[in-house]
Amino acid sequence: SQRVRYLRRNSYNRQQFLHFDSDLGYYVADTEFGEPEAKKWNSDGTADRMKVEVEGFCRYNYEIFEG
Fold this sequence. Notes:
Elements (H helix, E strand, L loop, with lengths): L6 E6 L2 E7 L4 E4 L5 H9 L2 H21 L1
Antiparallel strand pairs: 1-2, 2-3
GO biological process, one term: immune response
Protein name: MHC class II antigen
Keywords: Glycoprotein
């Protein structure tokens, strides 16, 4: 199976302030505004749910389209 990378970017007023990178497995703050959310989402299980989405949704659909 091929490697799948999932990026989810969160923006406000056209500026990216936070992103999730499945290669890292956690949220990263891109600005000071995103620091509290990154800390919260990395500790409350949100990052864990994103990792599950990569395996259950992204990889599954990749295999369908490539199969």
